[in-house]
Amino acid sequence: MSKQEEGKVITDIPPRLDRVPITRWHYYIFILGSGLFLEGFTVSIAGTQLGTIEKLLHLSTIEALAVTPIFLIGELFGAVILGYLADNKGRKTLFLTSLAIIMTGDVLVGILFIVHGLNYALFVTLRAITGFGVGGEFGASIAALQEFTPAKIRGLFTGTGNAVLFDLGTVVASLVAALLLSLLPTSLAVGTAFLVGVVIAAAIYVGRIGLPESPRYLLSKGRVEEAEKIAESVEKHATEKGLKLEPVQPIELDFSKGSEAGGYRRLFGEYKKRLILAWTLNFTETWPYYSAFSVISLALTKVFDFPGSKVALFLAAMTGAGVLGVFVMSWALDIIGRRPTITLSYGLGGIISIIIGLIVTAISFSAFLVLLVLMYFFVYAAAGVLYPQIGEMFPTKARGSAMGTAVGFGRLGGIIAPFALASFVGKISGLLPIFVITGIVMLIGAFAEIVLGPELAKKSLEEAAKIS
Question: What are phi and psi of 9, to 5 degrees?
């Protein structure tokens, strides 16, 4: 039941979406999150082969370290611009647009590597284009996953839908890179690895064509009848199984000018503290996350003389531990709450990083690898648990924009980290500042959550977005 007048909507659609138990349909919308699998693959397919690409294109250490930051610059602009468009043109439109951009960048990189037609400037330009598409994916995909998911399990569903799929993408990228490098000539192997990403993107694109628009987004645009039809189709999946749906009370949503309207003006005004928290959590998470695929990758080859194929396999193992971390901590989001889970993920990741830096010269290489895996259990967990909270903190009409600015600002962590740490990469003594600085950065994230983090577990998105 919905009633619309003068920019306000009295509707029971959001409560109805929150009461529906998880059905097969909800797992189908994980196709929305499949883009995050692609993003994990796309980010990592260059990082895991960075040592090899460095040799193929005859790069200096600084040029090699710049590959990931330049990708993230593209991601920064894509997150802000496409996140804004997700709030104005719809989640589904951006799902398809962002995938098309990703495919364009990766197919050109793949082909040009194979035909030996790639130089450094063209390579990083195409990676920035791909990054632009990846940035747009974050805002649209996470916003849509949250807007379809019942409140009581939104932390687990969104956390795993986001980070687990992303992390699995990085694992698959590492394994694909290692396999192809062992089977094919180097240029052909590297190019083919990028083309595997294009095939994945094309499959996801086809799957997304039949996905519905978010009912909450449709309500924000006054398209009440369309939202009603989609809500009814979601409920039908439960009622056809004989599940009883309890009655709910309608709520009033205000989409009039100066309320849900206002976009960035409202974000930087009423929601300023929450926006600062979102930016801080993203920055302090991407610093260690992207360091793994640039600084740590090069440190393993340059300091410990690890061959490229073994680096890829180790990063796959490290990511596997991260996937487990995301499952555990995403489950904790709905059990012990957002604030303690996020604080623990950032805090323990930071503490372990500092310990590694302080003792790295006194332990064996095997012990160093074990501690890295343990550290990234929490680093990857942090990457999963921050996004459910970020999306919950903002209203529907500004959720994509908020996610976009947070993701965009956060990518500065991944952009700055490789250059800030580059001078320490070539020697084992340099690992102390690398890990101590990284640990301090993560502890800043934990502190920000303690000071600014709202507790939003099991609240409806409409209730969570209210500033108390």
Answer: -130, 125
Domain count, the chain: 1
What are the tens digits of pLDDT across the range 198-232?
Answer: 999 898 888 888 888 888 888 888 888 898 999 88
Q: Where are the alpha helices (DSSP H) in 360-421?
A: 365-392, 396-421
**Distances from the Cα of 93 to the Cα of 63, 82, 214, 365, 387, angstroms:** 35, 10, 11, 48, 21
* Any domain includes 439: yes
Domain residue limits at 163: 2-216+257-464
pTM score, whole prediction: 0.82
Could you list the beta-strand ranges (E) of 63-126. none
In a domain, 168, yes or no: yes
* pLDDT tens digit sequence for 110-143: 999 999 888 999 999 999 999 999 888 877 777 7
What amino acid is encoded at 433 in this protein?
P
Per DSSP (E only), the strands in 272-350 are: none
Inside any domain, residue 322: yes
Residue whose structure tokens are 């294009």: 198
Contacts of 183 (CB under 8 A, 6+ apart): 189
How far is it, in rounded angstroms, from Cα 165 to Cα 180?
Answer: 22
